[in-house]
Automatic annotation (TrEMBL):
Source taxon at top rank: Bacteria
UniProt organism field: Lentzea fradiae
Annotated InterPro entries: 6-PGluconate_DH-like_C_sf, NAD(P)-bd_dom_sf, PDH_C, PDH_N, Preph/Arog_dehydrog, Prephen_DH
Similarity-based family: Belongs to the prephenate/arogenate dehydrogenase family.
Identification of the protein by name: Prephenate dehydrogenase
UniProt record, GO biological process: tyrosine biosynthetic process
Domain Prephenate/arogenate dehydrogenase positions: 2-286
SUPFAM superfamilies: 6-phosphogluconate dehydrogenase C-terminal domain-like, NAD(P)-binding Rossmann-fold domains
Range of residues in the leader sequence: none
Single annotated GO MF: NAD+ binding
Keywords, in A-Z order: Oxidoreductase
């Protein structure tokens, strides 16, 4: 990879990949709509960059990426790699079916805020049409410290619905429930045991974030509604179980341990470390409940 074009390179995700590629010694050209460039209708200069690039990264919204495909792919050089960074993969994967067989296609989704950086973070990789440049870029991500997880397009979207849409929905629902309980944030902060403090921190991160990011997670993924339905069903199951009695509640916990399977102990240890960190930072003597 010697010459790369990052479309949407002024954004957070685009900047993340531009820095990764330039750090590996590639010549990186950044294109962005903020500078008046339109990847769906490239001018002569941008068209020339597309033709010369051996890697083109699309760090743009899904609607733009889908519209750009018909213009972008025919203009790319044989053997070049087109990378998308979309948070939803299945619709894009369908749109790429039947495109040129001599262009590599790779979907990447950093499963973290770009400001956190690659080291130790998971990156979902959806290989639509692989080849040497695909393997080179995945190797570069691994060298940068990322945990590359290969997955199919539909499976990616199902997993994203579980790991992102469901998680965010649970935290937002927690916040909406707090608003109905007649308690204040100051009161909660003074008394919060570690599990509650963790949820408050997650709520603060989402509520203080960019609404468009979280809206996209809930609205764009075709499996997000299913995840929210599962959350509602889970709350109903808990209510019914509490009403049924302690034995049924014990059975529910047993069933949930089986959901975690072999990850039960590792995540239990991870939780203990998190709570210990909270204790060390706050000087609190609160215990988990």
């Amino acid at each position: 990879m010697t010459r790369c074009l990052v479309v949407g390179g002024a954004g957070a995700v685009g900047t993340l990949f531009a820095e990764l590629l330039s750090g590996a010694g590639a010549s990186v050209r950044v294109s962005d709509s903020a500078a008046g460039e339109d990847i769906t209708a490239p001018d002569v200069v941008l068209a020339a960059e597309i033709a010369l690039a051996d890697v083109v990264v699309l760090a743009v919204p899904e609607a733009v990426a889908l519209k750009a495909l018909g213009v972008l792919v025919p203009a790319m050089s044989p053997g070049a790699l087109l990378v998308d960074t979309l948070s939803v993969k299945s619709r894009y994967a369908e749109a790429t079916a039947g495109l040129r067989s001599d262009v590599e296609l790779l979907g990447l989704n950093p499963m973290f805020a770009p400001s956190l950086g690659f080291p130790g973070r998971p990156v979902a990789a959806v290989e639509l049409a692989g080849g040497p440049r695909t393997e080179s870029l995945l190797g570069l991500l691994t060298t940068a410290g990322a945990r590359v997880v290969r997955v199919g397009a539909e499976r990616h979207d199902r997993l994203a619905a579980a790991t992102q849409a469901l998680t965010h929905a649970a935290v937002l629902s927690f916040g909406a429930a707090l608003a109905e309980l007649g308690v204040t944030a100051d009161e909660l902060a003074a008394l919060a045991p570690p599990p509650h403090a963790t949820l408050l921190a997650l709520l603060a991160r989402i509520a203080g974030g960019t609404p468009e990011v979280y809206w996209d997670v809930q609205s764009a993924n075709p499996f997000a509604e299913t995840a929210r339905d599962a959350l509602r069903a889970g709350t109903a199951t808990l209510a019914a179980t509490v009403g049924a009695g302690e034995a049924e509640f014990t059975d529910l916990l047993t069933a949930l341990r089986s959901v975690l399977g072999e990850q039960l102990a590792p995540y239990g240890e991870h939780c203990a470390r998190m709570f210990q960190t909270q204790h060390s930072q706050s000087g609190s003597t609160a215990t988990a409940t």
